[in-house]
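Final report, closing paragraph on structural work. Over the funding period we assembled a curated collection of sequence-structure pairs, and we close with a single example.
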Amino acid sequence: MNTQKLWPEAMLFDLDGTLFQTETLLLPAYHATFDELRARGFYEGETPPEERILGALGMLLEHIWMRVMPEAPLATHQEADRLLIKYQVQGLKEGRGVLYEGVADTLQKLHDNGVRLFVASNGLETYVREVIAAKGLGHLFEGLYSAGEYLTRSKVDLVRIALEKHGIQSAWMVGDRSSDVEAGLRNQLTVVACDYAGFREAGELDGAHIRIRHFADILTHLT
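Its predicted structure, as stored:
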């Protein structure tokens, strides 16, 4: 039996909480960011709880800082943007940050079977590109799409841009937050919800067509 026809033409993946265990890179950079903000007079008081930024993963950066430090002025948010990416890139160069189990092998199998692979992330362009490069995944992806590069206000628009630019007719959207589910459904894609990162809130993955507990489980839904 030929099962290849069941495979989509393409898959679009969120990055944080889907491919990449973000907290392994983010949290050291987060604390370093607030240490420098305090040292330079941009911020006073204790570093906000880690749960605030972890719970905001998947949001646009401007919304993340509104959640993490809503009382701080825009200038502080902008400086936090700059510092966080600086410390994250530095951490990547020092070998910090890991992929979820099975990500590299599963992506390779999808690529070898002709599935076109893309990243669609609400993160900054530099961050997305640096993570993919540092983890040796660049050769597997046809395109890396980030809100930072395309200045999109929602992942719905970012995914639409990727689909239109590459003439994709059949695709799956794979992610761990409500923004991923919405982006997939509103672009008429099959939605795969990754239920292993622990960043989501109750009900966020409602509406997804498939829910997985391990990344490699994607393959079981293809064959």
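The chain has two domains: 4-21+98-221, 23-93. The domain at 4-21+98-221 is CATH 3.40.50.1000 (Rossmann fold). We thank the funder for supporting this effort.
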